């Protein structure tokens, strides 16, 4: 039979292998740049996380521990009562009679549970009766440092347990309010040495106690001296030799290099907004405060204040004192930040030091 061109009578061998597919070119994976936030096409409910956190916090509550340090008679207990508008500085067996705390160096802590609009707070106030009242005040800060470190140690022991509590009780001191006597002069060597030592382990907030005893000019001059030192001579806290004028910039440099680093610290500002807010606060430190736990009638309203022969000093009036700034700092704006810095900075430093000591041969 005739055959077609290109054809053959021999049977063709068919391969069992599948035909080779054409090779695909490898395309590198690239991520196209896009905006930081992804736009949603409908409601998802992510914002409900805030409501969940709020409900959980209201159920469990939170803890806040504050310490007040200063000489007797500077109004520490009254200031704490004014901050929380309740009798939280003393425990008494009878409601009408307060327990008198003896003037000793032994620290005393009092815990209360206060509630406002459904939010519960376990408040612990640590008082230091008799601090700086002795003739020889050498090492009078040692009991305070020991107490603060003991609270860190207690938290550390609970944290390193194999089977630990779901929520570790927090007794660490979150803030220390140091009361400076309203002398109108510069800080005393005791004040400088205390803040220099304590600012390394706790958040220290200095205040000028009983600021109503100073005029506005004296108050402004005193605050300037506290921050930068006087323009003339300044007694050295460590030796009797005075510092001359050219040593005053050195004092400012020491403050910047954390010789005395009071709260809010510049190194812990998170973003420009926090830095701007904290700069305004740092300009006002130390706060000139007046405490009062009694109400008086002023223009038909009941206000907290101190009654004198020439009028009533309103505690919550910014024109009279800077107590509202102190309250906003400790409670309304920086309470959580105080706790965060205590946990992430001061407690972390103590934990690292203790673990290094335990690992040494």
The structural class is alpha/beta
Determine the N-to-C terminus distance.
Answer: 102 Å
* CATH C-level class of the domain at 55-91 and 100-131 and 143-160 and 167-230 and 257-356: Alpha Beta
- Strand order, main sheet: write it out: 2-3-1-4-5-8
Question: How would you summarize this macromolecular structure in one to three sentences?
Answer:
With 361 residues, the chain is an alpha/beta fold. The chain is 34% helix and 16% strand. The chain has a domain at 55-91 and 100-131 and 143-160 and 167-230 and 257-356: 3-Layer(aba) Sandwich (Rossmann fold), CATH 3.40.50.
Could you explain the architecture of this structure?
This protein has 361 residues and is α/β, with parallel strands linked by helices. It has a domain of 251 residues: P-loop containing nucleotide triphosphate hydrolases (Rossmann fold, 3-Layer(aba) Sandwich). The strands form three sheets. A six-stranded mixed sheet has the order 2-3-1-4-5-8, sandwiched between helices. The protein has a three-stranded antiparallel sheet with strand order 9-10-11, with no helix packed on it. Strands 6-7 form a two-stranded antiparallel sheet. About 12% of the residues have low confidence.
Walk me through the topology.
Blueprint lengths: L47 H13 L1 E8 L6 H9 L23 E9 L2 E9 L14 H18 L15 E6 L8 H10 L5 E5 L7 H13 L5 E2 L6 E2 L4 H9 L15 H13 L2 E2 L6 E4 L2 E8 L2 E4 L8 H11 L1 H25 L2
Parallel strand pairs: 1-3, 1-4, 4-5, 5-8
Antiparallel strand pairs: 2-3, 6-7, 9-10, 10-11
Helix pairs in contact: 8-9
